[in-house]
């Protein structure tokens, strides 16, 4: 009796799955039929974008997030940023679009990685990294193999508990840093506070990946060797 009921439930679940899958495919097909061409995506031309970053331009010395917000107001929620010497970027300011993208990017999603890191691993130190892309710079089957191997570990809540003490220490040091540098009257952070945020990120990563406390938020902040690491990581981000 239980066996028959179990099989019946499996059949019902399978039918529901097939129905939902068929409906999703129909919706996707209908959406693609009404999709506009790439040329119809609004955005500045290459010349307009270059001019905007020159002295007196619209985006000269403007924070990146404000630039994107301005483009959102001018061109809408989806716009294109032309590349001067690389690949164009299409950006969306609508969170719902990201759900659609992530659900339809397939088994091996392609993501642009840090080109500096990619060059370092594939060319400069190929003898060390050959055959191992990693999660941040890999794509395709190699990335899928790595992701499959680490998923059971990274996605377990109990794994996060292993690093709780280290991360709490980093968080406490960051709070102390905030108390030390903020304006006592306005409670505002200094203009270079972004440096402290970078230090927070680096310290957090080192505490988890290397199980090491390097003191970027406190006693070792001005250490020359540590500053070399910070500058190198900054180069990776800015040049990547």
TrEMBL record:
The cofactor(s) it depends on are: heme
Listed under GO cellular component are: membrane
Q: Which InterPro entries match?
A: CYP11_CYP27_families (IPR050479), Cyt_P450 (IPR001128), Cyt_P450_sf (IPR036396)
**Gene3D superfamilies reported for this sequence:** Cytochrome P450
The molecular function terms of the Gene Ontology recorded here are: heme binding; iron ion binding; monooxygenase activity; oxidoreductase activity, acting on paired donors, with incorporation or reduction of molecular oxygen
Pfam families (UniProt xref): p450 (PF00067)
Under the heading SUPFAM superfamilies, the entry gives: Cytochrome P450
Report the subcellular localization. Membrane
Q: Which key words tag this protein in UniProt?
A: Heme, Iron, Membrane, Metal-binding, Monooxygenase, Oxidoreductase
What family does the entry list?
A: Belongs to the cytochrome P450 family.
Q: Under what name is this protein listed?
A: Uncharacterized protein
Recorded name of the encoding gene: Dere\GG13096
């Amino acid at each position: 009796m239980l066996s028959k009921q179990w099989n019946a439930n499996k059949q019902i679940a399978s039918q529901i799955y097939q129905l939902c899958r068929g409906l999703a495919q129909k919706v996707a097909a209908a959406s693609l039929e009404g999709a506009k061409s790439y040329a119809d995506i609004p955005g500045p031309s290459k010349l307009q974008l270059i001019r905007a970053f020159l002295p007196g331009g619209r985006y000269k010395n403007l924070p990146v997030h404000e630039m994107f917000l301005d483009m959102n107001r001018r061109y809408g929620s989806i716009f294109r940023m032309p590349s001067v010497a690389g690949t164009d970027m299409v950006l969306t300011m609508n969170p719902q679009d990201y759900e659609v993208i992530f659900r339809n990017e397939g088994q091996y999603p392609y993501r642009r990685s840090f080109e500096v890191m990619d060059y370092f691993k594939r060319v400069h130190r190929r003898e060390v990294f050959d055959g191992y892309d990693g999660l941040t710079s890999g794509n395709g089957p190699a990335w899928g193999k790595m992701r499959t191997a680490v998923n059971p570990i990274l996605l377990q809540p109990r794994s996060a508990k292993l690093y709780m003490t280290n991360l709490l220490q980093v968080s406490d040091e960051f709070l102390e840093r905030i108390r030390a540098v903020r304006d006592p009257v306005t409670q505002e952070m200094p203009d270079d506070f972004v440096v402290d945020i970078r230090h927070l990120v680096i310290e957090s990563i080192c505490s988890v990946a290397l199980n090491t406390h390097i003191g970027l938020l406190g006693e070792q902040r001005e250490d020359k060797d540590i500053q070399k690491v910070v500058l190198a990581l900054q180069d990776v981000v800015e040049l990547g």
